[in-house]
C-alpha cells in the first residue's frame, strides 16, 4: 500500500534520515520505533508531505506521490493524527469529527454558505454515515454532543482518531497515539486501532515510544537509529535483535558520516 524508498533528509549538517525505506502492507499494522532523535517524526513528515526530502520516493497504492503536498496526499486517501491534540474547542465531538470530512463533501463553500437543499441533503447523509460507521466503531455515541474540551484526555485522542477516519483513508498514520495516556486509555486505544484495521482493512503506520502497545498490535516493526533503519521484522524478531537492544540501551554509536 505504502512504499517509502531510500529517503534522505538533511537539516543543515544533520542527516535526519539517511536511506530509509519502509513498506506498509495493505491491511497490516506497521510500526516505526527508535530512540529519541532517530528520525521517526521526520519520516512521518516526509510521508505526509510536510517535509520534502533531499531524495527518495513515496508511493501510495503504486502511485508516486513524492511531489504532492499534504492536501493532495490526504485527498488520495492518506490520513494522519498528530502527537499533540489538535481539536477545536468550543465545538462538539460530532462537529469536530465532521471537520475531517470537508474534502469529501461535493458541495462548495458557496452553496454551503447559502444552505442550499443539496448541501443539507449531503450533510444529512454524512451525519448518518458518521453515526453508523465511525461513532459506533469508536464507541463515542455517549459523548457525541459534548464539547470536546470537557472530555478526558483519552477520549479526546479517540475523537482525533475518529476525525482521521471520516475520510475512510487507505492508510492511517498515527503519530504517538498513546503518548501521555494512562494504562487503561492505552489499552483502549490499542483495541480501537486494531478494530479499525479488522473492520475496514485499513493500512496503519504508526510511530510510538510505548513498547507494549507496539509489540501488542503490530504485524511488522521497523527500527530506526540515527536516521537509519537498523532492523525490521515481527515484534518477536525485533525484540530479540541485538542491534535493537544496543540502540535502546544507549550503546549504539552514531555513524561518523552523520556527524555535523
Ligand atoms: N526542523 C528541524 N530542524 C533541524 N533539525 C531537526 C528538525 N527536525 C528534526 N531534526 C533533527 O533530526 C533528527 C531526527 O529528529 P526526529 O524528531 O525526526 O526524531 P524522532 O525519532 O522523532 O525523535 P523523538 O522520538 O524524540 O520524537 C534529530 O537529530 C533532530 O535534532
From TrEMBL:
Keyword Ubl conjugation: no
One GO CC annotation: plasma membrane
SUPFAM superfamilies: P-loop containing nucleoside triphosphate hydrolases
Domain of life of the native organism: Bacteria
UniProt cross-references to Pfam families, sorted A to Z: ABC_tran, BCA_ABC_TP_C
Keywords assigned: ATP-binding, Nucleotide-binding, Transport
Domain ABC transporter, residue spans: 2-251
GO molecular function term, any single one: ATP binding
Name of the protein: ABC transporter ATP-binding protein
Species annotation: Mesorhizobium zhangyense
Amino acid at each position: 500500500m505504502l512504499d517509502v524508498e531510500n529517503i534522505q533528509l538533511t537539516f543543515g549538517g544533520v542527516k535526519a534520515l539517511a536511506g530509509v525505506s519502509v513498506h506498509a502492507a495493505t491491511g497490516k499494522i506497521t510500526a516505526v520505533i527508535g530512540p529519541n532523535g532517530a528520525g521517526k517524526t521526520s519520516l512521518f513528515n516526509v510521508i505526509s508531505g510536510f517535509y520534502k526530502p533531499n531524495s527518495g520516493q513515496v508511493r501510495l497504492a503504486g502511485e508516486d506521490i513524492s511531489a504532492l503536498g499534504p492536501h493532495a496526499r490526504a485527498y488520495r486517501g492518506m490520513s494522519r493524527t498528530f502527537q499533540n491534540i489538535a481539536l477545536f474547542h468550543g465545538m462538539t465531538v460530532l462537529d469536530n469529527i465532521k471537520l475531517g470530512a470537508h474534502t469529501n463533501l461535493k458541495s462548495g463553500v458557496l452553496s454551503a454558505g447559502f444552505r442550499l437543499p443539496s448541501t443539507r441533503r449531503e450533510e444529512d447523509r454524512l451525519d448518518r454515515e458518521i453515526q453508523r460507521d465511525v461513532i459506533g466503531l469508536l464507541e463515542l455515541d455517549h459523548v457525541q454532543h459534548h464539547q470536546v474540551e470537557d472530555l478526558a484526555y483519552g477520549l479526546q485522542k479517540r475523537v482525533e482518531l475518529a476525525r482521521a477516519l471520516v475520510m475512510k483513508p487507505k492508510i492511517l498514520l498515527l503519530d504517538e497515539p498513546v503518548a501521555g495516556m494512562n494504562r487503561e486509555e492505552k489499552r483502549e486505544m490499542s483495541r480501537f486501532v486494531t478494530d479499525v484495521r479488522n473492520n475496514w482493512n485499513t493500512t496503519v503506520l504508526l510511530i510510538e515510544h510505548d513498547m507494549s502497545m507496539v509489540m501488542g498490535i503490530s504485524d511488522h516493526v521497523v527500527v530506526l537509529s540515527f536516521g537509519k533503519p537498523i532492523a525490521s521484522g515481527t515484534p518477536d524478531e525485533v525484540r530479540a535483535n541485538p542491534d535493537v537492544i544496543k540502540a535502546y540501551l544507549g550503546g549504539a554509536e552514531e555513524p561518523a558520516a552523520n556527524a555535523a
